[in-house]
Amino acid sequence: MQIALFQPDIPQNTGTILRLCACLDVSAHIIEPAGFDTSDRNFRRAGMDYLDHVRLKRHDSWSKFEEWRAEAGCRLVLFTTKAAKSYLDFAYTASDVLLFGRETAGVTDAVVAAADARLVIPIRPSLRSLNVAVTAAMAVGEALRQTGFAGSGLAGSAT
Q: pTM for this one?
């Protein structure tokens, strides 16, 4: 299982998601350009000392990420508020890349078109969206549950 962030804007969210990746042993990808420098203190603070434990690959463009994905043979699962299918009604595979868009603008039409699946986390209709780090945690939790995470040998505190 892998998480990819498309041009993330908010350093605290990115740091939190990378900390999640470190704790759950999930690889991470940042598709640039990001809206901040990774030396940003908010990014480092949110990721704490966990950032050194993340398998992180940076891609300097969407096309470079797509080249990597084609070589790796991974399915792209996009999480978007514009999808109709619930993330709970989807069958994940261990090689999936869960993609999350920019906090301020989502993803481009080209990214939507490239996705093998588009999923939504249903929320109350009167509300706009969840925080991207919360969405990533819910999504990867369900994906790992379905693909046998409980038997992976990871153990420890959830706090």
A: 0.91
